[in-house]
Amino acid sequence: MALAVRLRIGHDRRVDRTARLALAVDRQGGRCLWCGRRFGPLIPPTTEHLVPRLKGGPSIAANEAAACPRCNADRGHTGPVDWLAQCRSRHGWAPQASLLATLLNALDVELDNVGGHRRAKRYLSGQLRRCRSGQ
């Protein structure tokens, strides 16, 4: 519940991108969502959209995670569940599937609360189904 409450600031358009990125870094313990590398001067955090903007994903805190530049660029518009699988099989990384599931569920709750974002909701529903089935 605390995560959902903290994410609500994301629909306040006065909250700037830097503050939303700082929130994502904090909630992920200062590590990249995908590869787990710790952020620092040589590995700066970047904003990663869980539901890509191309798929209707809004730029709100609930849809934003922190990723290193390499992971953000490599993922592109690949869905989060597919990218999670690629991180494991192709790269041998151990991303936290439970954290991704928590973030996707929090985004689902946020979009239900504010309404709208039909394209993002459809895309997110598919990702959540795949996440729950272990794909």
UniProtKB/TrEMBL annotation:
HNH domain sequence ranges: 32-76
Molecular-function GO terms, alphabetical: endonuclease activity; nucleic acid binding; zinc ion binding
Domain of life, per lineage: Bacteria
InterPro entries, alphabetized: HNH (IPR002711)
Pfam hit, one: HNH
The protein's name in its UniProt record: HNH domain-containing protein
Upper lineage: Bacteria, Bacillati, Actinomycetota, Actinomycetes, Mycobacteriales
